[in-house]
Specification:
31% helix; 4 strands; alpha+beta
């Protein structure tokens, strides 16, 4: 993904703990400037840094760490990613 803002539709979220675990792990990626997860909508908003690009595989790999962090037996995945204009 080139620099910019993206909406990421997620699957497998069981509770708000899942959303927090994903946000914590994705925030650790150097390519991501900001992240917020909306458990009710099963979506995340991420901003990829201007000087970076982000591979979808990196998002998925980090979801595995978030699963362990949440420790609920959930299996998260990326369903869809769409570019967002504006703020």
């Amino acid at each position: 993904l080139p620099p910019g803002r993206y909406a990421v539709a997620l699957t497998g979220l069981l509770t708000t703990v899942c959303g927090r675990a994903i946000a914590v792990e994705w925030a650790k990626l150097p390519q991501i400037e900001s992240v917020s997860v909306d458990f009710d909508k099963s979506t995340a908003l991420i901003t990829v840094r201007l000087d970076r690009a982000l591979k979808v595989a990196s998002l998925r790999k980090t979801l595995r760490r978030a699963e362990k962090l949440a420790n609920l037996g959930a299996r998260y995945d990326v369903r869809e990613i769409s570019y967002r204009l504006g703020k």
